[in-house]
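Technical annex B. To support the medicinal chemistry partners, we prepared a structural model of the target in complex with 6-O-phosphono-beta-D-fructofuranose, based solely on the information shown next.
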Amino acid sequence: MSSITHSSAWKRLVRHKATLRSSLSNTRLWDDPRRIDSLSIGLHGLHADYSRNLITAETIRLLAALASAAGVPRQRRLLFEGGIVNGTEGRPALHTLLRAAPQDVPKGLEARANEVRVALARMRAFTDSMHASKRFTDVVNIGIGGSHLGPELVVDALRPLEGPRLKAHFLSNVDPMHLARSLRALDPARTMIVVTSKTFTTQETLANAQAARAWLVTALGESAVPEHFAAVSAAPDRAREFGIPPERVFAFWDWVGGRYSLWSAVGLPIALALGFDTFEALLRGAAHMDRHFCKAPLQRNLPVVLAMLGIWYANFWRASSRAVVPYRQDLRLLVPYLQQLEMESNGKRVDTKGRPVKYATAPVVWGDVGTNGQHAFFQHLHQGTQLVPVDFIAVLAEEAGHGRHQAMLLANCYAQAEALLRGRSLKEAARGGPAKLAAHRTFPGKRPSNLIVLERLDAENLGRLLALYEHRTFVQACVWDINPFDQMGVELGKHLAQGVLYALDSGDISAIADPATRAAVKRSRHE
Ligand code: F6P
């Protein structure tokens, strides 16, 4: 297949962009109230307004045509039906099956769906017994990347004001201080440790698991290990070899990608912290987004529209990053989660056939919660030289009993989106302040954003939001013709680290080729 950039759908967008300037500078375009309705999609619990983008209705039509030319509908069918969408590893990526309602299970996947049901039933039984016994007050998840970011985000976002069922802690980094701080606050007798690793070979996770085991054994003796440890892995044999009894090993499958795995037993800390019903509600919300993604026409399909707007800016406007700004402190871990989801999935430089791509892929994702970000990086968004599209995320329901704070939060969110788009002209700036500062007080405007509004921050809506971003990532990978389900770019550094660790331990640097690494090792050993 020739590159997507040679397709007529792509070329039409290039020509369309060239003619767009005058439409975009016409205030009637932005002032037309019908624009909001035609450029918004409302689903149960989640509404997205994408009217503040540098587009007309025609742009959306052309972007949908590009999605179609790139084979998005065919790829989507493959994804849901268990086709080999992860070509380099020869696997399907069936995270959608983990949350599919019985009536949505595709033909041919009934046996796998049954395995999922059995695994969920085991998780529920284990979770309920932990809660019933009241023996444990804390759970520590030891895992990194996809075995950490999703569960921590969900627990942080949904923990009730009065406190969770079990207090969850996340030990991810191999940093000794992180380890010491994580364990210091805990009573070994009241702590459950869940080792989560798809491969059960990840260096950081195994080192932390060994350290946690030693900590437990020192306090309670060897016999405490089976009762205080559980594991989640797609390599259950390795977990058992570690000494975790089979009834406490929760398996998932190699057809679930690490960064797409929070819907599997990887969600065990979510269930332990918040209850299994909450975990199920999360799955229900994601399944709802799956149905929308499968059924809605491309032009009214939220994951497709948001993905294609991302393509629009990355490939036609040369935006090299995008910001995500949730106006809710409890969503502070959304950005790191999205960084792995989008940048590990689509940070690729060769297409599915291994040929170098001739277009940009995966812009950098960054951001922070609002209003904090307003007092840090928003200056760059408003007056910097780069175009950075923004996803604003707001939550309407206020459950903390501080309505005035909530109004202030929403007001700031909406006002920032307006300011980015409308800007302030040189003339207006000159009228409102000293003439010599007018240029400094000018805002160019036409800085695009989406406004995603959740009715409330509950498990179902969070499930919808995360599935939305998963599918957005997948659609972009289809257009860029890259495999979003492998991550070979993380291997080289891991491999080299083994040699460097040996050199740090032994002082023998003879096998290290790079002089800067050799120097760093010597300095670390004070040689
Ligand atoms: O090194 C990257 C990575 O493989 C991620 O893709 C994955 O989520 C993380 O490490 C952890 O892997 P595992 O779950 O196998 O320990």
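Notes passed to the chemistry partners:
The pocket of 6-O-phosphono-beta-D-fructofuranose is lined by residues 144-147, 197-199, 202, 205, 258-259, 344, 487, 490 (CB under 6 Å).
The chain has a mean pLDDT of 97.
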